[in-house]
């Protein structure tokens, strides 16, 4: 029988969002008014950050209560247009109870380069984070953004948003926020080792299997298996490029055909 989840109160959720907002801002995971945070307080309700406000300077009265369909239930300010991503995570993955969106500089650089974070080099990253795919680019604020992340919400714990930033989620706000911290830390280590030192020793398949079993004992079933070639769901950088080339070829073919058939 499924265990009933006990949600935190409205007050706790609003205070926690402010606290996490300060951390996200003080760690330079966002600049100015960037980023957004949300916490579910019921099966169909959540509190989220308002638009146009710095995450470092929020108070509980600024928060907005919404339902999973995007209707505002409480609050004087407007929610961010990026809340659509949060709603989509909750719709796709009922286990997710909190979502954090930020633009951490190193992680976002990987997102700009279209490089997914999946190299098995850090035990902590394998256990706490798993593989982090890159979702296709989508214009911020549009419906394309939630559509671009939808394929990853159930099987992973985080996703890179191409040329934009990152999104993490968890069974509570601490897990969602720690995943953002772990993500930036992992991206930084990978940048130093892989892209500056040009040397990163990958963990063996046996070592990875051991870490996966630790992860499962912690009740984490998501994150994919970070052995290159095993988990085909991951959209790797070369795969992303292949996909882009494919779509370009298709567009060119369509144009040529249009001209020929004129
Ligand atoms: Zn953003």
From TrEMBL:
Pfam families in UniProt: Aldolase_II
Keywords, ordered alphabetically: Lyase, Metal-binding
Metal-binding found in the keyword field: yes
InterPro entries linked to this entry: Aldolase_class_II_sugar_metab, Aldolase_II/adducin_N, Aldolase_II/adducin_N_sf
A GO molecular-function annotation: aldehyde-lyase activity
One Gene Ontology biological process: pentose catabolic process
Class II aldolase/adducin N-terminal domain residues: 15-191
UniProt keyword Nucleus, yes or no: no
GO cellular component, one term: cytosol
Identification of the protein by name: L-fuculose-phosphate aldolase
Source lineage: Bacteria, Bacillati, Bacillota, Bacilli, Bacillales
């Amino acid at each position: 029988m499924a265990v009933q989840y006990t949600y935190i109160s409205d007050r706790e959720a609003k205070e926690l969002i402010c606290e996490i907002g300060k951390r996200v801002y003080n760690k330079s995971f966002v600049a100015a008014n960037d980023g957004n945070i949300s916490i579910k307080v019921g099966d169909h309700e959540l509190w989220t950050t308002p638009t146009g406000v710095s995450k470092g300077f929020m108070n509980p009265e600024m928060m907005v209560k919404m339902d999973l369909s995007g209707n505002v239930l409480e609050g004087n300010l407007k929610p961010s247009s990026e809340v659509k991503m949060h709603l989509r995570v909750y719709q796709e993955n009922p286990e997710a109870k909190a979502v954090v969106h930020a633009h951490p500089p190193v992680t976002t650089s990987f997102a700009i380069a279209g490089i997914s974070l999946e190299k098995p080099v850090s035990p902590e990253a394998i256990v706490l984070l798993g593989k982090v795919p890159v979702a296709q680019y989508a214009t911020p604020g549009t419906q394309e953004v939630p559509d671009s992340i939808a394929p990853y919400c159930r099987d992973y714990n985080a996703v890179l948003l191409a040329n934009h930033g990152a999104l993490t989620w968890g069974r509570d706000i601490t897990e969602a926020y720690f995943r953002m911290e772990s993500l930036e830390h992992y991206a930084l280590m990978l940048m130093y080792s892989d892209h500056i030192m040009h040397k990163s020793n990958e963990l063996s398949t046996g070592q990875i299997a051991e870490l996966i079993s630790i992860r499962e004992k912690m009740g984490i079933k998501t994150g994919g298996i970070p052995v290159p070639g095993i988990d085909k769901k991951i959209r790797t950088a070369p795969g992303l490029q292949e996909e882009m080339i494919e779509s370009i070829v298709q567009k060119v073919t369509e144009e040529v055909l249009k001209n020929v058939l004129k």
